[in-house]
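[Meeting: bench + compute handoff]

Bench side (C.D.) handed over the final construct sequence. Compute side (W.E.) agreed to return the predicted structure before the next meeting so the bench team could plan truncations. Sequence as handed over:
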Amino acid sequence: MSTVSSPIPFIDNLNYLSSPLTDARQVMLRQPELREIEGCFDDLVHSFEFLVSFNGSTATFNSYRREIERLLQWTFMVRQCSLGELRRADIEDYIGFCQSPPPGWIGTSQAARFGNSQEGRMPNDKWRPFVIQPDKSSLSGERPDVFALSQKSLQSLFAVLSSYFNYLIQEDYLQTNPVALIRQKSKYLQRHAYAEPIRRISNLQWDYIRETVDLLARENPKEHERSLFIMLCLFGMYLRISELVADERSSPMMGDFQCDPDGNWWLRVVGKGNKARMVTVSDDMLDALIRYRKHLGLSRLPLPGEQTPLVPKLKGRGAVTSTRQIRYLVQFCFDTAFARMKQEGLEDEAQELRVATVHWLRHTGISEDVRTRPKEHVKEDAGHASMATTDRYINTQMRERHASARNKKLKPEY
C-alpha cells in the first residue's frame, strides 16, 4: 500500500447502505489487502454504525462521511494501522497530510464514489478524497495549482472527528479521543478578535440579477420562470437551498404555502436539525408565487394540502432532489448578470459577483430586512437558533466605527 496510489472509496451513498456488517464485508472483499491490518474490519463496522445514525439528513451524512472516509483511508493506506493505535501525534501528522495530500489523492472535479453496473455497485476509479475547487475570483475559472484546506474545512475536520472518537469511546470500542488534546491547544485554527463580515451582494448587483433573470424568463419561460421563482425564494424568504429540494426530511409542496384566518400567507419550511418553521410571505413574494403558478397552469393560489412539488423537474415528473442542480442554476444567473454589468461598464461591481455563492442571497435578504423589521421577526423567519446569529447582520457598529475614523489625518494638526 502506497501513499501515492489513488484510494478506492469505502462508503457509498446513504440510500445504498444496507447494514454495517454487510457494508464492512463489501469493503474487505473489494480490497483484500486490508485484511493485513488487524482491527480494520471492526473499525469499518463501527464507522458504518456511526454514519447511519445520521440518516435523518443527507447533508450531515455527506459531511461526516467525507471526514471519516479521509481518516480511514489515511489510517489504513498510509499508517497501515487501526484506529485504536492512533495517538495525538498521529492525528497531527494526519492534519499535515490533509493540508498537503499527494497528487494521487487529489481530483480536479467532484466525482461519485460508486456507480451501477451489472455486478452491482462498483467503486468509481475517478473518485478522490480531496478536490481542488475552481477559483471563482479568476476570470478564466482556473483551478489552483495546489490543494489548500480552508479554515472552515479545518474546523469541520476537528468537529466531526472529535464527535466520531467520542462515539467510539461511548461504545466501549476505544479508550481515548486523540483529537481532544489537539483541540485544546490548537495551532491550526485561527481565532478572530472580530466578527467575520456577512458576505452579501450589493443592492445594485441584486437589481441586475433580478432584471437579468426577468429577461431570461421572457426569452425562455419554460426553463427560467422556475429560475426566477427560485431566486426570489432565496432572497425574499431567505431560504436555504436544502429547504427547496425534496429529501428524506421533507418534500416541499405548493400546499406548504398556507393562508391563516386573517388572510396572511405563510410558508412551512423544514430546516436545519429537522426543525419546521413558518416563514412570512410578503405581498411581493405572493405576487411572484401567483406568476409562477400561472406559468405552471395551476390555480392562482395553492389549495390546502396541494401536492404539486414546489420546485418541479424540468424533465420528467416529481420534485428536484439535488441541491447541486439549484447551485448550478443560481450560478448561471450570477454569471449572466456579471456579463451584463461588465458590458455596461460596471467592472468593479461586476467582479464581486465572480465570488458570490448561493448563500449570499440569503445573507442579503436578511441584511436588508433587519434594517426595517424587528430583529425578533427576522430571527424566526430565518430559522436562527439564537438572536446572536441575527445580530451579526446588524452592521451599524461597524459602520459607525468606520465613520469615526474616516477623517483621521496622517499628519496631526498642532
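W.E. noted at the follow-up: The CA atoms of residues 76 and 401 lie 52 Å apart. C.D. will use this when planning the next construct.
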